[in-house]
Design a protein that fits this description.
Number of helices of chain B: 24
CATH superfamily of the largest domain in chain A: MetI-like
Radius of gyration of chain B: 40 Å
Number of domains of chain B: 3
Number of helices of chain A: 14
Shape of chain B: extended
Order of helices and strands of chain B: HEEHHHHHHHHHHHHHHEEHHHHHHHHH
Number of strands of chain A: 5
CATH architecture of the largest domain in chain A: Orthogonal Bundle
Strand order of the largest sheet of chain B: 1-2
Order of helices and strands of chain A: HEEHEEHEHHHHHHHHHHH
Strand order of the largest sheet of chain A: 4-3-5
Number of domains of chain A: 3
Distance between the termini of chain A: 54 Å
Structural class of chain A: mainly alpha
Helix content of chain A: 55-70%
Largest sheet of chain A: 3 strands, antiparallel
Oligomer: heterodimer
Number of strands of chain B: 4
Strand content of chain B: under 5%
Distance between the termini of chain B: 24 Å
Helix content of chain B: over 70%
CATH class of the largest domain in chain A: Mainly Alpha
Shape of chain A: globular
Radius of gyration of chain A: 28 Å
Largest interface: A-B, 92 and 96 residues
Chain lengths: ~375, ~650
């Protein structure tokens, strides 16, 4: 008599095996493709960080500038950035130059864009974290089920689905060009310089237009940061709410039972335990914000800038801050976009490859950090 | 929060309200805090409404403005000229193909003769170089001879004799030098041993003052004779196009001038309105008076459209005559065109085959346009709906044109849709397979590696992928296609963008699909196992069907992400504004396209706020916004319905 529990010989088993292998191959192909891209970018970008003298510090400390390629009679090629050309010529008077060619954006480094992106991210996160965490606290601690809550949730979901270029167009029209919000009139006793610096921030030519506006902003750091903040808000709210909800109900009930007010309860029994989750959320937000190009291409970004952000302003204190915020900045993603539009040339390629390598590594390590933190929190906080 | 805790909260407030509970404007601190948080949450709605409202505010006047623009297009007679232009272009493109076929065929059929002509021309140049000195001497003598001839002709009777002597001397000299030159030429010809005898003879018979040699002319004639039959249709087409081109260019100037007047009127009206507004807002009486004067100085004189477009109506008989000729030429061509199979060159055959449908198309276009042209009235109103259909169904997006701007949405929409579909076709099988594998088939260790790794892909900035597509992927795709024997003319095309977007869609689809599969109650699986199904059978027949609405929602959200992506398509899609040619089959993947997002990113920076172009861009953005809202809404509904079931 045969064993009724013996495995049947048939197609089912083979199908299982084949299916498993097939699905596995599909899965690992995705990962392999991503790793290939990562590998190629690293392989091609890494050499830009090094030159004949070892580490190429110019790449990380200088701003983008024109590269001058000097060709000697015997075919030797010298590559000198625009700002160094006088010094180089003085240092090497014996070299006879046959041919001089210029390649825009191919020289210098990426310090300006890096600083600009950092500023954009910091200001954006300041705004979006304040709004986002507050909103998350409301949604998780205060809101009662009902139409209001449903509407807010619907708005958040839909805001998350809006294409980034639409945010860019909105920010451009709303913050950089429009003049349509009625607001207060300003004190006429300010001096002209002060008006330019401070009032320029919310230029309010009440008597002339009867409107308040952001028109003093133009293409500016603050316009870009706010646009990015609106874009990243749904992500921050969702992630923060999740980390707030992860705090066990018992903590709240215990706190309330001890006579704490609602806010005292939130402050002492909920926020401290949700803090690490919010940190992860904010890093996730940073990753998203840093990589975005479309929202800043009209609102904040400048292709070329001679100085670092804020260095042009002669004002001090608050006026300097206003100057900084209302000035356009270079930003890493937009810089890469500018590089991508350049005509193909062997002299611009190192800059292109180096820029995407550095930028990718930066963004990916932030993403890695958030994954790492999330895993640690999951391990350490177990209630 | 539960109801209980709320009621206990308000109870406690009542009981302990005196201690540490300050109030502001009659509202307690806690209430203020709650309102602050609630207000921040409200911002999400505010932002969404602000975006929606702002897009609508800027876009809503697009249709009226576009309607006015189209109205002016008709009023100024530009529409009439476009009717001619269409005929011209259709006829010309048919002619161009026939002409190409003709020239290729001529070159091929008369190859031997043409080769001889070339050989003759090369040899002739060499020979002439050799005899250059002799030629110069002869040339001088020839000039002298001409002078002498003139002198002799003008000479008085008395001087006739001496003039005759000079003339005769000059004639002799010229004759001698001509002989010397011919001797030189003969000597040079002797050195050209590779030439055939008839070429040599022709060279020897050459005269210094001769242009084209009869030898060459005869050869040309022989070549032409070989394609004489073909030439009939080709020449008929060529001759029919010319008068149409002339008429078209002539009337174009008329219409352009009329349009300029219309545009001037429009700007003048705007200026006047601005001055009148200044009158209203002027702070002082003097300023008011000045503004009023300026406003009065702007005279709004509408052009006399009947007079402006009168030349067009006058030209209608001519246009009819011309289109009759066009049709005649097409008929002649059809009758006389050789059968492609009889042509000797394969490329010529191909061109001629292409020309046949073009000729049919040209006949249709000419007939239809001529009919419209005869019924065309410049004072007929353009229906408002025309501006709407002109936008949504228009096939041309032409901006900054000196003639007329058209804002047709269709090429952008097809481009976006095509790329998204390609991206999803690539991404969906992989990411759904990965979701099933990770959640159901993989070991736990594998799953903890795969999940974060795929989520990690989301962090790659899109602009980095875009530049990667330009620097590397485009080239590799072209190499790959060449290896497979598929021609890929453009490096930046639908396929390139589709692959990169697929990579961007994978994390979204994967995460959501994995969630959906994860949410299938384990009882389903257990029941299936209990019935003796294998794991794979359970996955395919129980779990995936249960999770299917969640997976579809994931795919939809992936679609939303892909269609809204900007940087990759801006950099990699090729940015050519035209509806891709679907007749090419899969070859459509190798064509460059433009997309909604890419166009907004590319053109917004350079338009004036409030212009028609600006409004058109906002209209595109509004449509894009609506598409993403709809996609979002459908997928949310699916998820909700599905989670109720689960």
């Amino acid at each position: 008599m045969s064993n009724p529990f013996a495995e049947t010989k048939g197609g089912a088993k083979r199908a299982e095996k084949l299916g498993r292998i097939g699905f596995g191959i599909a899965t690992y192909m995705i990962i392999a493709f991503a790793i290939t891209i990562f590998g190629i970018i690293t392989y091609q970008g890494l050499p830009t960080l090094f030159n004949s003298d070892g580490f190429n510090s110019e790449f990380l400390t200088e701003s983008p500038q024109t590269l001058i390629v000097l060709k000697e009679g015997d075919g030797t090629v010298h590559k000198v950035s625009f700002s160094n050309i006088e010094k180089w010529k003085a240092d090497n008077p014996e070299i006879q130059i046959e041919e001089e060619k210029r390649f825009s954006y191919a020289g210098g480094g990426i310090a300006g864009p890096l600083i600009g992106t950092a500023l954009l991210v910091i200001i954006c996160m300041l705004i979006s974290l304040v709004v986002g965490i507050s909103a998350a606290i409301f949604l998780s601690e205060y809101a009662r089920p009902g139409n209001f809550l449903n509407t807010i949730r619907l708005a958040i979901l839909n805001l998350a689905g809006v294409p980034s270029i639409v945010f860019g167009l909105f920010g451009f029209g709303f913050f950089c060009l429009s003049r349509w919000l009625p607001v207060l009139r300003y004190d006429r006793d300010f001096t002209q310089a002060e008006q330019d610096a401070v009032i320029g921030f919310f230029r309010i030519p009440f008597m002339d237009h009867g409107y308040v506006s952001f028109e003093g902003w133009g293409t500016s750091l603050i316009a870009g940061a706010i646009t990015l903040a609106i874009m990243v808000l749904p992500i921050i709210i969702t992630a923060c709410e999740e980390s707030l909800r992860a705090v066990p109900k018992g903590f709240r009930e215990a706190s309330l039972a001890l006579g704490a007010s609602k806010w005292q309860m939130i402050r002492t029994a909920v926020l401290p335990y949700a803090f690490s989750g919010m940190l992860t959320a904010s890093i996730l937000g940073v990753t998203r914000v840093a990589g975005e190009t479309a929202p800043i291409m009209f609102t904040a970004a400048a292709a070329a800038k001679a100085t670092l952000p804020g260095a042009e302003s002669n004002n001090g204190g608050l006026f300097w801050l206003s100057d900084l915020l209302t000035d356009s900045v270079q930003a890493m993603p937009y810089h890469i976009y500018t590089l991508a539009k350049l005509p193909e040339s062997e002299f611009t390629k190192p800059m292109q490859q180096g820029s995407i390598f550095v930028f990718m590594v930066l963004v990916m390590s932030l993403a890695g950090l958030s994954v790492f933190l999330r895993n640690r929190i999951r391990k350490s906080l177990k209630w | 929060m539960s109801k209980q805790s709320r009621s206990s909260d308000s109870d406690s407030q009542r009981s302990f309200s005196k201690k540490g509970r300050s109030t502001l404007l009659g509202i307690s601190k806690d209430s203020w805090i709650q309102k602050f948080f609630g207000g921040n949450a409200l911002l999400a709605i505010v932002f969404l409404l602000a975006i929606c409202g702002f897009l609508i505010k800027e876009a809503v006047f697009f249709f009226p403005d576009y309607h006015k623009s189209l109205q002016l297009f008709r009023q100024s007679g530009q529409e009439y000229v476009t009717l001619l232009e269409d005929q011209y272009k259709a006829q010309k493109s048919a002619y161009a193909l026939v002409d190409q076929a003709y020239n290729i065929e001529r070159a091929n059929a008369g190859a031997a003769e043409l080769e001889k002509i070339t050989a003759f021309a090369t040899a002739r140049n060499k020979v002439l170089d050799f005899a250059e000195e002799a030629y110069d001497e002869w040339d001088d003598a020839n000039d002298e001879l001409e002078d002498a001839q003139d002198e002799f002709d003008d000479a008085e009777e008395a001087d006739k004799a001496s003039a005759q002597a000079t003339l005769e001397a000059a004639q002799t000299l010229e004759k001698n030098l001509r002989t010397a030159w011919k001797a030189d030429v003969s000597a040079a010809v002797l050195q050209q041993s590779s030439l055939s005898e008839d070429v040599k003879d022709a060279l020897r018979q050459m005269q210094p003052d001769q242009g084209m040699s009869p030898f060459q002319m005869e050869l040309q004639k022989a070549v032409d004779a070989k394609v004489a039959e073909f030439a009939i249709s080709r020449n008929a087409l060529r001759d029919s196009v010319k008068p149409l081109e002339k008429l078209w260019l002539e009337l174009r100037d008329v219409a352009a001038a009329a349009k300029d007047k219309g545009v001037t009127l429009k700007t003048a009206a705007e200026r006047k309105a601005a001055y009148l507004e200044a009158v209203q807002n002027a702070p002082t009486p003097e300023a008011r008076q000045k503004a009023q004067e300026q406003a009065d100085a702007v005279i709004l004189a509408a052009p006399d459209w009947d007079k402006e477009v009168a030349p067009l109506y006058e030209a209608t008989p001519r246009a009819n005559e011309i289109s009759k000729n066009l049709l005649q030429a097409i008929a002649t061509a059809k009758e006389n065109l050789p059968d492609p199979a009889t042509l000797t060159d394969s490329l010529a055959q191909e061109r001629l085959k292409q020309a046949t449908p073009e000729l049919v198309k040209a006949r249709e276009v000419v007939t239809a346009r001529t009919e419209t042209l005869n019924q065309w009235r410049h004072d007929e109103k353009v229906g408002f709906f025309k501006s709407v259909t002109g936008f949504f169904l228009g096939a041309d997006w032409v901006t900054n044109s000196s003639w007329q701007d058209f804002y047709g949405f269709l090429p952008l929409f097809t481009g976006s849709l095509l790329i998204s579909i390609v991206a999803l076709c690539i991404a969906v099988p992989f990411s759904v397979a990965a979701a099933i594998y990770t959640n159901q088939l993989a070991s736990k260790g594998e799953a903890t590696f795969i999940k974060p790794t795929i989520e990690f892909i989301q962090a790659i900035p899109s602009v980095v992928l875009g530049l990667f597509g330009i620097l590397i992927l485009g080239e590799s795709l072209r190499d790959g296609a060449e290896f497979l024997g598929i021609p890929m003319q453009e490096r930046l095309n639908v396929l390139n963008a589709g692959i990169l977007l697929a990579l961007m869609a994978v994390p979204t689809v994967f995460t959501l699909a994995e969630d959906a599969i994860n949410n299938v109650p384990s009882a389903f699986r257990d029941a299936s196992f209990a019935l003796g199904a294998t794991k794979f059978q359970t996955v395919l027949r129980v779990i995936v069907p249960t999770a299917i609405s969640g997976i579809i929602a994931a795919i939809l959200l992936g679609f939303g992400r892909v269609i809204g992506e900007t940087m990759v398509v801006l950099l990699v899609a090729g940015n050519k504004i035209s509806i891709p040619d679907f007749s090419d089959g899969l070859g459509v993947l190798t064509q460059p396209v433009h997309t909604m997002t890419g166009l907004i990113a590319q053109e917004t920076g350079e338009v004036n706020q409030g212009s028609l172009h600006w409004r058109a861009l906002f209209m595109v953005a509004l449509v894009l916004f609506m598409i993403s809202l709809t996609v979002n809404y459908i997928s949310q509904t699916l998820i909700r319905r599905y989670s109720l079931k689960g």
